[in-house]
Specification:
This protein is α/β, with parallel strands linked by helices. The strands form 2 sheets. The protein has a 5-stranded parallel beta sheet with strand order 2-1-8-9-10, with helices on both faces. Strands 3-7-6-4-5 form a 5-stranded mixed beta sheet. Helix 3 links the parallel strand 4 and strand 5. The two termini are 16 Å apart.
Length: 255
Amino acid sequence: MGEPLRGERILITREETKAAEMAEKVSKLGGSPVVVPMIEINDVEKPENKIILERLSSFEWVFITSANGVQAFFQLLQQHHKKLPQGLQFGIVGKKTEEVLEAYGYTASFVPSSFDALTMAEEFTSFHTTDKPVLLIRGNLSRQILPEKLREAQIPYETLEVYETIYCTESKQELNNVLSTIDYITFTSPSTIDAFVTLAEYIPDKAMYICIGKTTSERAKELGIPNLYTSDPYTTDAMLHLITELANERKMNHE
């Protein structure tokens, strides 16, 4: 079957700048992508950021858990004409995050076995020791898992907030217009779920909800999202593979 998703309507809720690539993949599989961004990502500049950039040599590790974080961090460096000191090591979460880091010419020295912040914290605190603080690159809605685990392990850290996530309130009408027609709803971060629950007038119980990983699916459970499925590995390709399997299974059951 060349088009396993023919007849399936798939809602893509991620930020608009990244939705096109996923929509194209859905189309190639024969599905109908419906792009309604739930969030928008913007770089932020805070007075304290410049102070931290002046002290980059005081850190041994930089932790980044999203591609947005990598892009915003390096843009901030460029804006302030700063270069990374020798010996600074990167810890990252996620295949896409790693790819974006490599595009800037750097290789991650630490990648957890599972692409989520909890595994990152547990594995790092088990195998790594450092006298210098860890620098956490974050957004305004980043979860507190990493800070909490580093604090428990008595590993010093500082945070650098380089981007903000805001809800796309202008998407509300379009979202509610299409909800009843959707077969699969995809979530690529906890913030997309938070925004969806805020903007949706109701949560369809006939749709299947596909989460990119454990952290995202846990947030969906907390908010009462039904019919939850989680991709493994935590990539958009794996999400689409999972949707294809579910679609095939559903079609076989109806034959």
